[in-house]
Write a structure and sequence with these properties.
By secondary structure, the chain is an alpha+beta fold. 19% of the residues lie in helices and 35% in strands.
Length: 300
Amino acid sequence: MNQPPRKRWQIVDGVLLLDKPGGLSSNDALQKARRLFSAAKAGHTGTLDPMATGLLPLCFGEATKFSNRLLEADKTYVATLYLGVTTTTGDAEGEVLVERPVVVDETAVYAACAHFIGEIEQVPPMYSALKHQGKALYEYARQGIEIAREARRVTIHSLEVRRIALPEVDIVVRCSKGTYVRTLGEDIGALLGCGAHLTVLRRTGIGPLEIDAALTLEQIAAVEESARRPLLAPPDALLAHLPEVQLDSLGRGNFLHGQAVRIAAGEGEVRVYGPDFLGLGMAESNQQVKPVRLIAFAEQ
């Protein structure tokens, strides 16, 4: 019996802005995209719930060195709240817990949403990937075990009500890292006195990255594999929110040998070029930039 040919993995460097479909875990989406590009090394910049759709930046090759930089970035979501019904997961994938009549008006909905703008405390949901004694909370939840969770401070930068067609409410949320929009929806429902869960959750932005530039798995598959590389953004796309520093040839050589380079660049993380992208640097108050992470071609 003939065996199917083994996959030939290749060195692929870049960032794929994927529009993740619903019903697929982030890791499953990563593996499907990885195979489409035959990428030897791949990783993601943070997960999306299986139910959720939208922007999921995936990193190949050298871009994986900078994947954690988006974990700190603000996120933007579009969500639909269904008032009057609470579920075990806070979304449509869970089992119904309680149904209540929805006796609120638009004024109450706007007021409830406005209540959560700013810095708030939020208790992470049991159906989440947060770990307790090395085990994800959702694993305990599936066994019917409730683990005590401490409230965490998160920031809701903006919360816009886009549509009210009771019992449905569409909102757009821009929030800090660590925010659970499912929990936000539940809290809004609790404040209204009727409960709520999410029926739609779509991520549309992470830091400087926007959903408009994202591609679906189907769109990628429709392109010949030999022509897919141009679909990737360069590794420095993950650092687009950082200031840029340009080094001359002498500075480039020193930087690539792990030495600090004297150049005025303020303070904090910077993208370093010379003239091509060299890696991530740290600008210090003494007007020096130290290398933090170099890309491989520069290190050779």
